[in-house]
Structures are given as C-alpha cells and as structure tokens.
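so my prof wants the structure for this chain in the tokens format not the other one, which i didnt know existed until like an hour ago. anyway here's the sequence
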Amino acid sequence: MTPIFRISRRSIRICAAVALSGALVLLAPLRTSAFERLRLRLPLLESEVTLELGEAETAADLLRVNPDLAELDRAGEGGVTRLLEALLTAPLPQETKGFLHQSAGQPLLEQALLAASELVQVAGLPAPLSGNDLKTALRLAYSEGQPHLLGVLRRLPGTTASIDLQALLFYANRLSRHQSQAQELIQAVQPQPAPAPGVLAAVQAERSWLRSQASLAVAHRPQPLALVIVQPKQDANRRVVVISHGLWDEPASFEGWAQWLASRGYTVLLPVHQGSDLVQQQAMLSGDQPPPPAEELRHRPMDVTAVLDAVAKGDLLPGAQLNTEAVAMVGHSWGATTTLQVAGLRTTDVKLTARCQDPRDPDRNLSWLLQCSWLTSASDASLGDPRIRAAVVVSPPLRLLFDAGSGSELTARVLLVSGTRDWLVPSGPEAVAPLRQGQPLANGHRLVLASGGGHFNLRGPASSEPPVLAPLIEAWINQQLQPDAPFRFDSGDWGNDRIPLADVTPQL
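here's what i got, hopefully its the right format
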C-alpha cells in the first residue's frame, strides 16, 4: 500500500503544479485565469483539487483555507507556497495594463483566449473569456490596490474556473500525431550527405561579401522600410534573393543564409517587416502596441514588391545591373507564408471561417492562432509577383490560408522544408498533408524534412558554423535560376551532419 500511496501523492503534486502554472502559460503574457475558486481536474486519478480563493491576500492565507493544498505543500517541502507566491500574489508587470488596453479585441489575442478556453472552463461566464473581460478585471484590480493575479481573478465575470488536464493530454496526443507522419516518412528515406568539407570551409573562410543597410519610403508603411543588403565582393551573378523573416523576428536571424548565398554570387535583400518584427514585439509587450493586425498579411508581400520595384528602377543598388525578372525568395515561418503569397498562391477566407472556432479540430495546432488572426484580410491578400521564380519556404503556416486550387498559378517552383520536431508549425498538418493532397502545392515542388528540426534551430544566423539549410537553399535556387550550375538540388550533397535532411516527396 505504501508504494501506491506515494505514487499517487507525487502524481497529484505534479499535476497540481503543472495545472497551476499551465493555466497562466496558456494566457501569457496576460497571466490570468479564474475567480472564487480554481478546480483542477486530474486525469487518470479521477480526482479534483479545488483552490478556494475567498478573501485570501497571501499564499499563506490560501493554504489556511485550502487544507488539501497545505498537505501538498508539506509533502513538496514548500513548493506549493513558492508556486502560489510566484503566480497569484506577485505584482503583475506594469506593462500588462497597457498591453491589454491595446490588445483587447485583436484577432491574435482573441484566438489565444479561444484556445485557452478549451482547458479553462468558467462557470458563470456565458462565453469564453475575451480581451475586454480581462481588460476590465485588470483595471478594477489596479484601481482597488490589488495589481496581482489574485486581484484579477476576483474581478472576472464568473464563479469557478475548472482546468481540465484531460484536455491537456488530448492536446499533447494531437501534437504527437501531427509529428508522427513526418517521422515515419523520414525514417523510410536515406538522408542527403553534407557538402564536402572543403566547400563548407571555403565559403566560411572567404567572407567574400559586403553588408550594408538601407531604407525605402513605401506608401503602405508609416515609416520607411528598412532592409539589410548582403552583396558578393566579386563574381556576382546578377541574381537577386529576398529573405523574409517570421513573426517577431529580424533579418539578423537569417544573415548566415545571406552570407552563404552572397559568397556564391547572389545579391541578398532582407526587408524588416516593421508591423510584425522584433521591435514590434518589444513594443507590444511594453504595452505600446497591440498584436500585429490582420492587415499585416497584405503589407508583408507589399514590402517585397516595393523592394524589387526599387531595385528595378535603380533607386536601390543603382548601377548593380541586377536581374529583377527572375528572382528567388526564401522565408521562415510567417516569412514562408509571405513567400508563398508572393510566389502566386491565392489566399482565401473559406477554411479560416469554417475551422477557426473549433478548438478540437483534429488539425488544429499553435500556428492556427496566427492563421486565424488573418481572417478579415485573407480574401484581399492574393498579391503574387510574377518575378518570383524560385521559392524556399521553411516551416510555413499555410493549411487554412490558401485556395486549394491555386497551385497552378504559382510562378515559382517551391521547396518546402519542415522539421520533425516543430511544435509551433507541425509537419503533419502544415507540410505533409497539403503536399500529399495536392493542396496547394503539387507538380515539381518538393518536401524536405529535417530530422530533429524544430521551429527555431532551422534558422540561419551568422556564426562560425555554416547554417543547417544554407547549402540546400543554394542548391534549390541554382536548380531553378541557374540549371547549368554544378551544385543543384538534383545533384544532392546538400544535407547536414547535425540535422539530417531528406527529400521525402516520392513517398507522399
């Protein structure tokens, strides 16, 4: 009996800790959840832990009115006390107030709250928590001298919040299924070998590139469009590559790719998408800006077209004699979605309208928070530029956005790269399924899976080591724009020793 008792108690402690912390993670950065009491539904154990909030002001007060938690605290050597202090009674960041004021009603925040509502069910609340609910509760908590989570809980329009850990297990299992398709495919294929060591060393040693910065006035942005330019010092091939960064990222995360390509003759342009870049994220978390609006879905491809127009007119890089009629584009995450837009895929709100309100959709994943925030702009975001003739898209959120029948309208051959351990944009629903179904990519496009690749370790910042995907990106661009080049996708040797890369297209 003793071993069983110990296991059960330990399990309860673990589940309680996970639930208490997970409730806030789900709603980050708002750090809020429920009201008079918090009930944790524990899977497998068929048990519940209820936290009565009452009039408690401190963690010690909460333990006095919650004997079960007091027992857990003793068994965990004060761990529950520390958790309650950190989550419930610690002052909220001052920026939280400004963030909620700016963000209430914004699509990205509301989608996050919709997803959280599947785990946090509120008795007495007729609908899922909204940004306006949180904003009102936070304002009251601050005005009444309780600027912490416990103060916010008491001022939300409900009575009891239940955190269903069985639902959490459902989500974990769903994510596992999303990744299993890619893992099965890559296990059946021999990974590509890496380029010869001499090739890698030569590219890194030569440092045959020049880096500069520029800005460009554009009609669709309130501020000039900033960009980083990486050019070859010699042996330029007159070809242009545009690299588009992801949500809350910046060109610096991809300058390793740019340096590699510039050392091989390409001129690389990296625009800063100011409506969804790292600076915008910092301003948002400081309470100075809301999350990226739906219109950013349109503005990003417009950034790319404006940059190419400026090069073609000689306003940018005058005298460089660059070929802007056959351009390559590379993107990561949202930047990959932007790349698909510019390459000609037609956007639509049909699937967004049909599927965004179901937290239990079998294909739903974290990227849908972003995709669903595009709903009001999706029907007006088909902004293809026929100058894009080669595209590499790494971890693109795409399942809900694109018209299934628009693959024939692509002006570029597309290489889609996805990591088998990407939990933000999982390979199954966002890469394998669209290609397997021919929606929207088919006929001449390829899928390369990165074994062990996550969402962020496939990026290409400048470093002493060649970026994982740099040879692959060059090989694909050479294949499309310079088919006579000796180093092409079909010739192979574009793999990586750290993260194996395999073309799984024939297995789809």
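also thought this was worth mentioning. The chain has a mean pLDDT of 84.
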